[in-house]
Amino acid sequence: xxxxxxxxxxxxxxxxxxxxxxxxxxxxxxxxxxxxxxxxxxxxxxxxxxxxxxxxxxxxxxxxxxxxxxxxxxxxxxxxxxxxxxxxxxxxxxxxxxxxxxxxxxxxxxxxxxxxxxxxxxxxxxxxxxxxxxxxxxxxxxxxxxxxxxxxxxxxxxxxxxxxxxxxxxxxxxxxxxxxxxxxxxxxxxxxxxxxxxxxxxxxxxxxxxxxxxxxxxxxxxxxxxxxxxxxxxxxxxxxxxxxxxxxx
Length: 249
Known about the structure:
This protein is 28% helix and 18% strand. The chain is an alpha/beta fold. The protein has a single domain (2-239), classed as Rossmann fold (3-Layer(aba) Sandwich). Helix 1 packs across helix 6 (194-209) and helix 3 (67-82) crosses helix 4 (99-110).
């Protein structure tokens, strides 16, 4: 499993005290521009951020692995990050873009250790199929959740998301990016650039992350009948800037 650990620079004023796993979406890799740029922006504010590839992405396949394999890879990446000495004393956050966030929230619902769940473009339903909701497990997530959503996202109708968040109560925070699609691209007529949107996302994310506090490890997670393959341990490099980028998905 390939991975990149982004460390915060020295001398950050009031640094974020979080260790964040930021998984990629179904159509890309850890080099997705939005994932790279947001990881860099949050690391610049003091966060410790791990990006990694799911096995299918490492192998160059387009179709995602089945759920148990995705969960096993995510668990291996999270365990590697949380065991790092740099993560000691930090709030531990499971997160990801689209599918990566769905896997993260599923693990938190099963009881995996998480002080927060970070959902960047959560895929509430398949495009054009709003009746196929993917919200049942969210009620079992015990920690705070951040939903970053665009008003033009075909995989997340805000009219359907808001009642879900109302049921979750104070645990859930919603940040809406006006005009954003599933990759948070906005129309040219909005007058905003990709950098403007990144600034909105990173600022809102930092405010939410700053409120998280580390808690004692929970009871062992409920099994999901998956086991991490021996090759799942991340081989992480350290970077202060992102690596090569791919088209946004």
